[in-house]
UniProtKB/TrEMBL annotation:
SUPFAM superfamilies: Thioesterase/thiol ester dehydrase-isomerase. Residues 69-136 form the Thioesterase domain. This is Acyl-coenzyme A thioesterase THEM4. The keyword Nuclease does not apply. It is an enzyme of class 3 (hydrolase). InterPro entries: HotDog_dom_sf, THEM4/THEM5_acyl-CoA_thioest, Thioestr_dom. It is a peripheral membrane protein. It comes from Actinomadura rudentiformis. It holds the Pfam family 4HBT. It is found in: Cell projection, Ruffle membrane; Cytoplasm; Membrane.
Length: 160
């Protein structure tokens, strides 16, 4: 599998790849990535695990356009962030994205369904290394590598 990871998103030697605990625990209704109540959200739904690879999908609609008829790169990056984030949380702790590196390989037209896959490449202390990719009609369209950082519960306390 080709990796898009840089030195900052490549796990160090000795990092372990833990088993994932299904389902992902982050079902916050207001989440842009997965929330049912986020009216402008992309509503990614975890659809299962293939070994250590989590699978999900979303369909690009007009509201996601950048150039006419094409998905905005930020939407695709957000979808990858969500997919990787769900895998991080299936490691059993709370994580946030510290760094997200994204390659955009082909334009993604409105109406496309992007099939996303994400997996962990290693955990080292508070750092979790994740990778993922999105295919459209069987063709690799986007991919990402990320560093997630474990945070305490208080990180998610509501702010004024
Ligand atoms: C209620 C349910 C809701 C559930 C909601 C779940 C939503 C999930 C959504 C998907 C995921 C997201 O989008 S999360 C949202 C986007 N992300 C964020 O908002 C994160 C904002 N950033 C932060 O809060 C902070 O910077 C942290 C937590 C990432 C790190 O701060 P910290 O805790 O003080 O730790 P710090 O010492 O700085 O860093 C720890 C180690 O990580 C390294 N490190 C930190 N950041 C980076 C980085 N960008 N690139 C490289 N390395 C980094 C440091 O060098 C250090 O390495 P060493 O010296 O130890 O070697």
């Amino acid at each position: 599998m080709t990796t898009p990871a840089s030195a900052k998103t490549t796990p160090p030697t000795g990092a372990v790849v833990p088993a994932l605990k299904e389902p992902p625990p982050t079902e916050y209704d207001g989440c842009f990535g997965c929330g049912d109540q986020a009216s402008d959200g992309i509503r990614l739904k975890h659809t299962g695990l293939d070994g250590k690879v989590a699978e999900t999908a979303f369909t690009v609609v007009e509201a996601h356009q950048g150039a006419p008829g094409l998905a905005h790169g930020g939407i695709l990056a957000a979808a990858l962030d969500e997919a990787l984030g769900s895998v991080a949380w299936m490691l059993g702790k709370r994580y946030v994205t510290g760094r997200l590196e994204t390659d955009f390989l082909t334009p993604v037209p409105v109406g496309s369904t992007v099939q996303l896959r994400a997996w962990c490449t290693g955990v080292d202390g508070r750092k979790a290394y994740l990778e993922g990719e999105g295919h459209v009609d069987g063709k690799l369209a986007v991919r990402a590598a990320a560093l997630f950082i474990e945070v305490p519960e208080e990180h998610f306390e509501e702010r004024p």
